[in-house]
Design a protein that fits this description.
The chain is of the alpha/beta class and 354 residues long. It has twelve helices and 14 strands. The protein is globular. Bound molecules: 1,4-dihydronicotinamide adenine dinucleotide (NAI) and magnesium ion. The site of 1,4-dihydronicotinamide adenine dinucleotide (NAI) has 21 residues, from helix 4. Its cofactor is Mg(2+); Mn(2+).
Length: 354
């Protein structure tokens, strides 16, 4: 059976790291005798340049008829002054909505060898291993109206959710906690926001369905502080779209670099999309020095969640760990005793380890 994978390289380092992930999947294909069929489509800035829209229909159709999607990253200074419907990020929000990718799973686990690469103290991050479950298709990034008012002198953005949208992400988080260490931290701003009050009510009501999971509620501002002062208290964190966006970049500090953090975006019943947590990194784009590990670990998540290839996914994760333990790293990680390699070299080391 052939597994159809759509590649959406996007912009900046997105295109550099996605071909690294493809090389890794080809190594897996050889070793485990699996067939992957790849096709590439435009999204983001490159799609604006080639098709006049950040999300061409043919890209959406290809994703819908695939078995899984790998996405690099979108955006860059070239398009920063475009009107909002011609911004690369619109492509990203559009594909999440089109595939109904409501659940974004972001595992954050530091490698032992890289503990000192984090600006945080080793004894604080030692043993941290958490999963951020972020709602991805609702909230402020999608709510309407979102516009300038009063001749540009006032603005409105809307944080809207339905009960059903909250329930499905909270269920996903409880189920994720059941597969891990059975502790769920729900992050909200229930002392201020009406949306957070309903969110908290739903979490409370759902506890009965998952009696093996312990639950606590933390306000988002306190959660931001705890994440870097006492990260080991967390197992699974569930939160709405924007809070999750912010907290997951913050959590990347535990791993030493945003370039280490993979993610899976899942639908209830449909194609999954896998992408690194980082963006297109215009400051290093074109230099060939991007860290491909976040993208490669995203491909491992794809094998696990979309193709049920647990052994193959584990093989990728183990290979990454082997190379990290050999003290090789890309330039984004601060590691004085390490050996600095570029994107291609890092990819080849991981291929060899597989
Ligand atoms: P960014 O994540 O692209 O970069 C932040 C910093 O981390 C930069 O210094 C960058 O060099 C570094 N970095 C990120 N990934 C790296 C990697 N794999 N290897 C080495 N260093 C890495 O975020 P920034 O700079 O805020 O945004 C740049 C562009 O990316 C913007 O246009 C933004 O809208 C877009 N963006 C796209 C996302 C996506 O496609 N999912 C997510 C976040 C931002
Ligand atoms: Mg972000």
């Amino acid at each position: 059976m052939s597994n159809k994978i759509v590649l959406l390289p996007g912009d900046g380092i997105g295109a550099e790291v996605i071909y690294a992930a493809k090389d890794i999947l080809e190594a897996i294909s050889k070793k485990y005798n699996k067939t992957f069929e790849f096709s590439s489509y435009d999204i983001g800035g490159v799609a604006i340049d080639n098709h006049g829209t950040p999300l061409p229909n043919e890209t959406v159709e290809a994703c819908k008829s695939s078995d899984a999607v790998l996405l690099g990253a979108v955006g860059g200074p070239k398009w920063d002054n475009n009107p909002s419907d011609l911004r690369p990020e619109r492509g990203l929000l559009g594909i999440r909505k089109a595939l109904d990718l409501y659940a974004n799973l972001r595992p954050v686990k530091g490698f032992k060898k890289l503990l000192h690469a984090s600006p945080l103290k080793e004894d604080i991050i030692q043993g941290s291993d958490l999963l951020i479950v972020r709602e991805l298709t609702g909230g402020l990034y999608f709510g309407q109206p979102s516009e300038r008012l009063d001749s540009g002198n006032a603005v409105v953005d809307t944080l809207a959710y339905t009960r059903r949208e909250m329930e499905r992400i909270i269920d996903k988080a409880f189920q994720s906690a059941q597969l891990r260490n059975k502790h769920l931290t729900s992050v909200d701003k229930a002392n201020v926001l009406e949306s957070s009050k309903l969110w908290r009510e739903i979490v409370e009501a759902k506890k009965a369905e998952y009696p093996d999971v312990t639950v606590d509620h933390v306000l988002v501002d306190a959660a931001a502080m705890k994440l870097i002062t006492n990260p080991t208290q967390f197992d699974v964190i569930v939160t709405e779209n924007m809070f999750g966006d912010i907290l997951s970049d913050e959590a990347s500090v535990l791993t030493g670099s945003l370039g280490m953090l993979p993610s899976a975006s899942l639908a209830e019943d449909g194609v999954g999309l896998y992408e690194p947590a980082h963006g297109s990194a215009p400051d290093i784009a074109g230099k060939g020095i991007a860290n491909p590990i976040a993208m490669i670990l995203s491909a491992a998540m794809m094998l696990r969640y979309s193709f049920d290839m647990n052994e193959e996914a584990q093989a990728i994760e183990d290979a990454v760990e082997v190379v990290v333990n050999q003290n090789y790293h890309t330039a984004d990680l601060k590691n004085d005793n390490g050996k600095v390699v570029n994107t291609t070299e890092m990819t080849q080391l991981i291929v060899n380890a597989i």
